[in-house]
Design brief:
about 110 residues; 4 helices; about 70% helix; rod-shaped
Length: about 110
């Protein structure tokens, strides 16, 4: 007849198994440590990627804002636009050509 197993039989380690585990415990500990380092590094890399994407998005928005302000500024500084803006203040643009000033060199 088969021998009835008790809980003690399942929890008890044989001397060979216990010796094998204790002999390889430093290696198991080292592999566990490397696994934790690997997981931490992966999480750190994901965090950095998210930060880079956020920074790139901000850069695109700032570049768009810069380009729109630059084009608006270029439009408003055209001579015709300056004349229109100064017309409300009572100033008007000159219709004649600018005079050329010639300085004779003294030798």
């Amino acid at each position: 007849m088969a021998k009835k197993k008790t809980i003690r039989d399942y929890t008890a380690l044989g001397s060979l198994t216990a010796e094998l585990i204790l002999k390889n415990f430093p290696f198991v500990f080292f592999v566990s440590f490397l696994a934790m380092i690997y997981i931490a590094n992966a999480l750190y890399a994901e965090k950095k990627v998210r930060e880079i994407q956020k920074t790139q998005s901000e850069l695109r928005q700032l570049r768009w804002k810069y380009m729109s302000l630059k084009s608006e500024s270029m439009y408003e500084t055209k001579r015709s636009e300056v004349v229109k803006a100064l017309k409300d203040e009572g100033l008007r643009g000159s219709r004649k050509k600018p005079n050329k000033i010639i300085v004779k060199s003294e030798q």
